[in-house]
Amino acid sequence: MKVLAAMSGGVDSAVAAARAAEAGHDVTGIHLALSRNPKSYRTGARGCCTIEDANDARRAADAIGIPFYVWDLSDRFHEDVVEDFMAEYTAGRTPNPCLRCNEKIKFAAVLERALALGFDAVATGHYARLVTGDDGLVEMHRADDDRKDQSYVLGVLTQDQLAHALFPLGNTPKHEVRAEAERRRLQVAKKPDSHDICFISDGDTGGWLSEKLGAGSGDIVDHASGEVLGRHGGAFGFTIGQRKGLRIGRPAADGKPRYVLDIEPVSGTVTVGPREALTVDRIAGIRPRWCGTPLTGELHGTVQLRAHGDEHRAVVRVDGDDITIDLLDTAQGIAPGQAAVVYDGTRVVGSCTISATRRVPAATA
Fold first, then answer.
1. End-to-end distance of the chain based on CA atoms, in angstroms?
2. Smallest Cα–Cα separation from 267: which of 306, 221, 222, 300?
3. How many CB atoms lie within 10 A of CB 117?
């Protein structure tokens, strides 16, 4: 096949590109320039959007022996990922920009351009497995290495996108990928993994949002008594389940720590309470994205609610574009805006955006 390899400048995408070339595909490497001002994005080895990352990707492509280009998608990234991130926080929700980037950039904008240029598939260094069933549909499954599995952030991909995707690392543990990079003499073999949000240069999400959205204020109130416990400088600086940084100044009556339970964006009110009040047993979801045939009716499977979170046994019910997830294993700290990814065994069925949760009464939590 004619394959476009998305190369972030890290070890995973470099080895994925090398494997695609070694398999006999006609491979071209590309690096995505996602920042309008690369110096404003994360520096060092923590991100994937800097000038040095582009240089690392170019050196890897040279070592592999494949053509290499840089594609400027900074305007599309700013509109579809950065502005969406700000809008979600303004609305009191907690988005996952990595899912949005996979949905809107890597497997939409990039794939669309790749297909228009005559490429058959896009290869990335994500840890997930693709299996073609007897019916011709491409199934996405969890990676063999549970610690590196990235199927959660790929749960937004549709069948059309999966049919043109390659994930060459899905069957390989991370330590073997690094060892292979050493054997291939790729300079990124020991480069640390990227983490955090790539477009927030210092990792201070609250500070970044405050700079972009402006200062705000509101009350911090106790969920049981309604007592005002303090003031804050912007509701976007809080997330559901947050414990640290509340700056309330005095402990709860029972001496236990308080957690953020709710964020009201219009008034700016942040409600706090005990940990047990975070427990939820039902989730409402919207905007479903199915990886294969759309789910109808009811599924007894599992859901994952965070990128590195646990699986929860659940019953998933679908009514058009509305999803109801009853958790057989309760969860805590689940916020609207997060993604719920549905699994049937290791197979990714699809995902939805969490719109609301139902808390378990304190007496039974």
1. 53
2. 221
3. 10
Q: Facing residues of 131 across strands?
A: 139
Which is catalytic among the residues 48, 101, 291, 352?
A: 101
What is the rounded CA–CA span in Å between residue 156 and residue 132?
18
- Which residues have CB under 8 Å from 111's CB, separation 6+? 122, 161, 164, 165
User: In this predicted model, what pLDDT tens digit does every residue of 97-138 receive, in sequence order?
Assistant: 989 999 999 999 999 999 999 999 999 999 999 999 888 999
Active site residue 101: yes
Contact 334, 263 (CB under 8 A): no
Instruction: Confirm whether 198 is a catalytic residue.
Output: yes
DSSP character for 363? T
Lookup: tokens for 358: 């139902």
**Per the residue annotation, which of 49, 98, 198, 291 is the catalytic one?**
198
As a whole number of angstroms, the distance between CA 324 and CA 305 comes to 14
Answer yes or no: are the C-beta atoms of 123 and 106 closer than 8 Å: no
- Residue with more model confidence, 5 or 89: 5
User: Which structure tokens are listed for 3?
Assistant: 């394959």
CA quadruple 233, 237, 240, 243: dihedral, nearest 10? -80
CB 92: neighbour CB atoms within 10 A?
A: 21
Question: How far is Cα of residue 237 from the mean position of the Cα atoms in its chain?
Answer: 19
- Tokens found for residue 133: 């069933």
Q: Mind giving me the DSSP string for 59-118?
A: HHHHHHT--EEEEE-HHHHIIIIIHHHHHHHHTT----HHHHHIIIIIIIIHHHHHHHTT
